[in-house]
Amino acid sequence: MLLRLPQARRGAVVACLGTAQTVGWAASYYIPAVLAAPMAASFGLSPVWVFGAFSMAMVVSAVIGPWAGARIDQIGGRGVLMLSNLVFACGLTLLAVAPSPAVLFLGWAVVGLGMGMGLYEAAFATLAGIYGRAARGPITGITLIAGFASTVGWPLSGLMLATWGWREACLGWALIHLCLALPLNALLPNGVERITASATAEPDGPPPPRLALWLLAFVFAATWFNSTAMAAHLPGLLQAAGASTAVAIAAGALIGPAQVAARVLEFGLLRRLHPLASARLAASAHPVAAVCLTAFGGPAAYAFAVLHGAGNGILTIAKGTLPLALFGAAGYGARLGWLNAPARVLQAAAPLIFGAALASWGASAIWLTAGVGLLATGALFLLRQS
């Protein structure tokens, strides 16, 4: 039975979609950290090959994202999200039964299709179809829930790996998609009526200025680059800055809670601000954290992690709320897909680029991401509220 009266049942919609998003992220983005090494070892490969396949999956998701967004604009998000669960399950099954590296790469490519159709961009577009410009709160709500994807995903992947093996772990995630995420997405309202109505009734004015679109695409690409670079290399960076291994790991563990705490803040106090104002604050957090780390070295590891995590948590929400606030709900899904396509491509290259900088420059590599963060902040100040 579909969830009726979405305004009255907002909590149920957020719970269903947030839980399905948690599965989507845990069973794709967070798999390589646990399964890449045994996956590669079974084929006699270096883990670099598996991470390369995962980077390819992110490029595939960038290519398919605009199409998925446009389909959500046309037919609503429920069907696209349900299809993504089936695609995820097929990709994970291919990984599980892969007899050769070629099939393994094919499996990751199919997982990339699922990522382009079923992660945040598609979820945000679905909520825009259900709630129109009032989707900011629900968008924040699902990111609050899915912010625990790594907290759930890494231990569960590790448990399945230790109990059965990496192939069975992939099959386990495929079954979770089919038995949990798919039914939850099936409960969602379709939402296409709000998108269709907004195309004619919502006073959005002329098409968005091309400069504004390019600036926002740059902001998304820059912040995704920093987020992915830190996710891959934060412990090494903190150790290069003078922190011990134990402190570096403990500081890294604070990023998740800092992200969730910042999203709670966005849901409460910052919701009174325009999304552009909160995005400017969030984008400046990483450069400020870099100044702290450079000035104080290892003792600032915890402050760096908290500031970076908090900024990243709010910026994840901004990727959904900013285009909605600036340009409206009409054409939102397709626009979001195009705006995030460069980010996905740059995200795939971020670990390699920052890893090379860290190897060459040591702790001074932080100025690469700090500079990128400053450019993103500047771009946000060039955008105007609507």
From TrEMBL:
Pfam families linked: MFS_1
InterPro entries named among the record's database cross-references: MFS (IPR011701), MFS_dom (IPR020846), MFS_trans_sf (IPR036259)
Protein keywords: Membrane, Transmembrane, Transmembrane helix
PROSITE patterns: MFS (PS50850)
Domain of life where this protein originates: Bacteria
SUPFAM superfamilies in the record: MFS general substrate transporter
Residues passing through the membrane, by range: 12-36, 48-68, 80-99, 105-130, 142-165, 211-234, 240-262, 283-307, 313-334, 365-383
Domain Major facilitator superfamily (MFS) profile: residue ranges: 1-386
UniProt name for this protein: MFS transporter
Keyword check for Acetylation: no
